[in-house]
Design brief:
This protein has 471 residues and is of the alpha/beta class. Helix content is 32%, strand content 25%.
């Protein structure tokens, strides 16, 4: 059993805001509790309290009581906590220690001093039960973000700890893999594991969660049973900044294609891309046309099917091994594609360079030397209060909004957003939808690489689907 009594925490790096305020919560053995709420509300901080990273790694002032099976968690050494609590972080890259997928799954087991026989048994069980046998013995550098997310779950699953803490585990997962994750969580519950999930995407947790804990400004505001959560009206969810509790597929939002507009054009003819010795896709042909009204193109498909590779190729970060890519009927070299496009990456930390949010936008503004309304962009993305904060001090969802705000400030006419709703709550997802539609009205072509059909609903004009998995 986990007990939190009047827990308060304030980061040393940001003494102006209390990350947690008077948290009282008891989690029973074998229970699945979902922590939800808007970006920056304190969900991740609460998970860090449970796994011992606050305050031993993330320094600050922590008060109150944290008990794990009646033992004071604050007095337990980190290695002892790790025997009881396994964690999947929001950014899986931050918990990888090897370069090989099988070694990575073995790493945690080795640190718990399991026997060789037990380690091999747990590795086999993890890859099999998560249906990721094809990811065995792969270089971590060759995996997509979604595949790395699966591997992070497998590594913690193999450690066989009684408590699992998962921070946004579905952030980069396709719908099929989310269903696999749901099945794994159900199996872990049957095994008696205690599960704490911090999430914005809530639909896959119906039938798994025992309680939903809604956090706002560092405080627990409401706790719902699954039935109470499901009965929340759309207006109530919108007011709370929550995502839908119902699963939405591409078929649910399908519509007739928009008529082609005459004007600008991007065309691909027989494109192929190889990464190392792996052919990601071949024979890719497309033709997207857009006029003054702009266009939004959804890029969908399973993890590892080539969506991000396509996005990088389109933006000039990768060269096709075969075929031709044309802008307005003329071959577009990598340098020209880089000039005309702006790419928002999945991994936001790769695109955050400066000392403040405002400086990030100013840096992006220099790309095309087009002045922008900085204050309007900050307001539209809900970042006005964070304008002077260091980007790396923000939550995952807030970082995501900073990179999208930078894309807006760049003034580029072709925007490519790779999983832009990763880490976004319902309110900020809706805010981003409105922003994309406003950018579209400016005559921009916007590619949205996503697994998030709730987000894509109502904004796309065309969809290109990468249906085939690599692995």
């Amino acid at each position: 059993m986990i007990t939190l009594k009047d827990v308060c925490f304030q980061y040393s790096a940001d003494s102006t805001v209390k990350a947690l305020r008077h948290i009282d919560l008891t989690i029973q053995d074998g229970e699945c509790v979902v922590l939800t709420g808007e970006s920056g509300c304190g969900k991740t901080t609460l998970t860090r309290c449970l796994n011992g990273l606050v305050p031993s790694f993330y320094e600050g002032e922590l008060t109150g009581g944290l008990l794990l099976d009646e033992k004071n968690l604050l007095e337990m050494p980190q290695y002892e906590i790790s025997r009881h609590v396994g964690t999947v972080f929001q950014d899986p890259r931050s918990q990888f220690f090897t370069v090989d997928s099988t070694d990575e799954v073995a790493f945690g087991c080795e640190n718990l001093s399991m026997s060789t026989e037990k380690i091999n048994q747990n590795i086999q069980k993890a890859f099999h039960n998560l249906r990721i046998e094809a990811l065995k013995d792969c270089s971590l550098f060759a995996l997509s973000s979604g595949e790395r997310q699966k591997l992070a779950v497998a590594a913690i699953y193999a450690m066989d700890t009684p408590v699992l803490v998962l921070d946004e585990p579905s952030a980069n997962l396709d719908l099929e893999t989310m269903e696999v994750l749901r099945g794994i969580l159900q199996e872990l519950k049957r095994e008696g594991k205690t599960i704490i999930v911090s999430e914005h995407r809530l639909s896959y947790l119906m039938g798994v969660a025992d309680r939903y804990v809604y956090i706002q400004d560092g405080e627990i505001k409401q706790i719902w049973t699954p039935r109470q959560a499901e009965e929340l009206s759309k207006a109530e969810r919108k007011a709370l900044g929550l995502r839908s509790f119902q699963s939405i597929s591409l078929a649910d939002i399908a519509k007739e294609g928009a008529p082609a507009e005459q004007g600008k054009r991007i065309e691909g003819r027989g494109l192929a891309v190889r990464l190392d010795k792996t052919e990601v896709f071949r024979g890719l042909t497309f033709n997207f046309q857009w006029g003054p009204a702009g266009k939004v193109v959804g890029i969908t498909g399973n993890n590892g099917s080539g969506k991000t590779t396509f996005a990088k190729m389109l933006c000039g970060l990768l060269k096709p091994s075969e075929g031709a890519l044309l802008f307005d009927g003329k071959p577009a070299a990598a340098k020209e594609r880089l000039r005309q496009t702006y790419f928002v990456m999945q991994d936001t930390d790769y695109q955050l360079f400066t000392e403040s949010v405002r400086h990030e936008l100013e840096l992006a503004e220099r790309k095309n030397h087009r002045p922008c309304d900085m204050e309007l962009i900050l307001e539209r993305m809900g970042l006005s209060q964070a304008a002077e904060r260091h980007p790396l001090s923000l939550s995952g969802g807030q970082k995501q909004r900073v990179t999208i705000a930078a894309a807006m400030a760049s003034g580029s006419d072709i925007l490519v957003l790779d999983e832009p709703t990763s880490g976004l709550d319902g309110r900020n997802m809706q805010r981003l939808k409105e922003t994309i539609l406003a950018l579209k009205k400016q005559g921009k072509l916007i590619f949205v690489v996503t697994h998030d059909m709730e987000f894509l609903d109502g904004i796309y004009d065309e969809v290109m689907s990468f249906a085939q998995k690599i692995r």
